Amino acid sequence: MNVMLTILLAVQMISAVAMVGLILVQHGKGADMGAAFGSGGSGSLFGASGSANFLSRTTAVLASVFFVSTLALAYFGTPRTATPSGSVLENAALTAPASVVSAPVIPASGAGQIPVK
């Protein structure tokens, strides 16, 4: 089980670092306006329109890998104990301590003089 958690953690960290790198490499929407007037370089590896599609799809795949590995880590990383069936409140009542010692109630300065029926 520890090996699987280590592999999931490694997959999550690699996908997070790769996702950050891909997001930093992508151009924003405002960069297209500057590239249209000649101020931006259009000599990318995948062409002007292909790079955004490839990078955005790869980022989406890495984001889904990241979320799936996060959910798997949360599921497999939580220790499970055998609990009896029933409601949550019944299970909480079973696990509560049997005897609870309460501190004596000290009345406020004038509350002890009020008659109680």
From TrEMBL:
Subcellular location: Cell membrane
Pfam families associated with the record: SecG
Residues annotated as transmembrane: 54-76
Origin: domain of life: Bacteria
Record family assignment: Belongs to the SecG family.
Function, in words: Involved in protein export. Participates in an early event of protein translocation.
Protein name from the UniProt record: Protein-export membrane protein SecG
